[in-house]
Specification:
The protein is mostly beta strands and about 220 residues long. The chain is built from three helices and 14 strands. The N terminus is likely disordered. Keywords: Signal.
Length: about 220
């Protein structure tokens, strides 16, 4: 099924209300009224330069200079977005989603691609896009080895769903260790993942901004 991705000039599901004084450049996002779970009094703070974005009726916040690449939920942090823009100028056709981008995935339990068991497993990081940085996009890409599985965490979205997250520290021969991360929303069968984390990118902020009030699995 095709996925729809649009930048929102005005919030459709998320309701904006003033949270802090005008000098802070912050407003408060609150979930839309599509479901009873979305009646939370808590909101999500938007900063100056943030944009509202929607993919397949999942609403979220893109921080300043982040870009949505294509229409299938590829959310690239500034450095990866700049590199992808340069690559697009040199090559014809669509640019692959960068390994440092956050990827929004749907119906993840189908075929056992991502499950809750993965979050507690030393092999839960093994996804087709998680390869050694120097071999991304190559045939026979090098596979990293586990250094450490980080402590699991969870949080609640403004629309009421619980997000469970996990991270793994990996290494490749001759290279510096890097991290790969996974966020899972079991009730919606939706996941976010980053193959190779950019330490300068605030991925958690995007994950925490998700509003699934209008999303139907």
């Amino acid at each position: 099924m095709g996925r729809r991705a649009v930048a929102l000039a005005a919030p459709l599901v998320l309701v904006l209300s003033t949270a802090l004084s005008g000098c802070t450049g912050q407003v408060q996002l609150r979930p839309g009224p599509a479901r009873p779970a979305a009646s939370s009094e808590d909101g999500f703070p938007m900063h100056k330069g943030d944009e509202l974005h929607a993919v397949n009726d999942i609403n979220l916040v893109l921080p300043e200079r982040w870009e949505a690449l294509g229409s299938d939920g590829c959310l690239a942090p500034p450095a990866a977005a700049e590199e992808a823009d340069g690559q697009h100028g040199r090559e014809d056709g669509p640019v692959p989603c960068p390994p440092a981008a956050m990827r929004l995935r749907f119906n993840v339990s189908e075929g056992g691609s991502i499950s809750r068991a993965d979050l507690d497993s030393d092999t839960g990081w093994k996804r087709p896009n998680v390869v050694c940085p120097g071999s991304v996009g190559q045939v026979g890409s090098a596979v990293p080895a586990l250094v450490k599985r980080e402590k699991r965490d969870e949080f609640e979205l403004v629309s009421g769903e619980t997000v469970e997250q996990a991270a793994w520290r990996l290494k490749c021969e001759g290279g510096a260790p890097f991290e790969t991360r996974l966020w899972l929303v079991p009730d919606a069968d939706v996941a976010l993942d980053v193959a190779i984390v950019d330490p300068a990118a605030d991925y958690d902020r995007i994950a925490r901004s998700m509003d699934l009030s209008r999303y139907t699995p």
